[in-house]
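Reviewers of the previous submission asked for a worked example of the structure-prediction workflow described in the proposal, so we include one complete record here. The input consisted solely of the amino acid sequence. No template or homolog information was supplied to the procedure at any stage.
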Amino acid sequence: MKEPLRKCLGMRLSLAALGFFLTDEAVAYLQVVPTGQLLKAHGEVVAAMMPNVSDLWPYYLPDQLLSHTARSRQAYRRKRMP
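From that input alone, the workflow returned the following structure tokens.
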């Protein structure tokens, strides 16, 4: 596992857009540009950890990844109805 992670050290990431997961928490995120280098590294990390993982969330599989960095939770607050 160390080798795939070591390859990620110093990798430059570009942020492309602000988005929100449309859930009750309304988590704001910055989308990371999915470069070939990032996608390859992600695939190698997933492959290295799979022998020790029994149930990987499908959204984290290499062909399903939405690379992002979460920025805040509860970006808005709903008003409670009386």
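The chain has one domain: 2-72. We consider this example representative of the routine output the project will generate in years two and three.
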